[in-house]
Amino acid sequence: MDDIKIEEENTNIEDKLKKLKEKLKKCQKEKEEYLDGWQRTKADFINARREEEERRKDFIKLSNQLLIADILSVLDSLDLAVQSQKNKENDITDGVYLIKLQLQDVLKKYGLEVMKTKGEKFDPKFHEAIEEVESKKESGTIIEEVQKGYKLDNKVLRPARVKITK
C-alpha cells in the first residue's frame, strides 16, 4: 500500500513538475515576445523623433526661404535707388523712404509689429529705461523713444529703449 502511495505521489510530483516546466516555457516565450515588442516600439519611437526633427528643420528652411524671397524685392529696390543716385537721376531720399515702407510691409506680413511707446506708461516687459528725466508729467511716463521696440507674434523681439519721467 505504501508503495502505491509513494508511486501516486511521485506521479503527482512528476505531473506538477511537467506542468511547471510547461508554464515556465510559456512565460519565457511571452517574455521574449514582450521584449521584442518593446524593442521594436523603442526603435520606432527613435525613428519617429528623428523624422520629426528633420521635418522641423525643413519647415524652418522653407520659412526662411519665403522670408528671404520677399526681402529680395526690397534689396532690388535699394539697388535701384543707389544706381539712380550714381546717375544723379533723382534724390535718393524719396527712394529710401519708399524702400523703408516696403520693408516694413514685408516684415509686418511675417508678424512683426512696432511697439508704441511715447506717452505710454513704462513697462519693463516691453521697455528698457535708459534715462530718467525731470518732468511735470506722471512718474514712469515715456517721454522719448531712443530705439524702437518690436514684437514678433505678440512676443517681445527687442524691447524699446526709452526715456521716462521721474
Which features does this protein show?
166 residues, Hemagglutinin Ectodomain, Chain B, Nucleotide Exchange Factor Grpe, Chain A, domain 2, 3-stranded antiparallel beta sheet, alpha+beta, elongated, 6 strands
Please describe what this structure looks like:
The chain is of the alpha+beta class and 166 residues long. The protein folds into 2 domains: 1-110, Alpha-Beta Complex (Hemagglutinin Ectodomain, Chain B), CATH 3.90.20; 112-166, Roll (Nucleotide Exchange Factor Grpe, Chain A, domain 2). It is built from 2 helices and 6 strands; from the N terminus they run H-H-E-E-E-E-E-E. Strands 1-4-5 form a 3-stranded antiparallel sheet. A hairpin with a 2-residue loop joins strand 4 (150-152) and strand 5. Helix 1 (2-86) runs antiparallel to helix 2. The longest helix is centred in the N-terminal third of the chain and has 85 residues, at 2-86. The chain is elongated, with a radius of gyration of 38 Å. It starts with a helix and ends with a strand.
What is the highest CATH level, the class of the largest domain?
Alpha Beta
**Would you give the CATH topology of the largest domain?**
Hemagglutinin Ectodomain, Chain B
Work out the count of structural domains: 2
Number of strand elements: 6
Largest β sheet strand count, sense and barrel closure? 3 strands, antiparallel
Task: State the separation between the terminal residues, measured CA to CA.
Answer: 112 Å
**Spatial ordering of strands, largest sheet:** 1-4-5
Radius of gyration: 38 Å
Shape: elongated
Measured by DSSP, the beta-strand proportion falls in 15-25%
Q: Write the CATH architecture name of the largest domain.
A: Alpha-Beta Complex
How much helix is in the residues?
A: 55-70%
Structural class of the secondary elements? alpha+beta
Mean pLDDT: 88
Count of alpha and pi helical runs: 2
Low-pLDDT sequence parts: none
**Order of helix and strand elements from N to C terminus:** HHEEEEEE
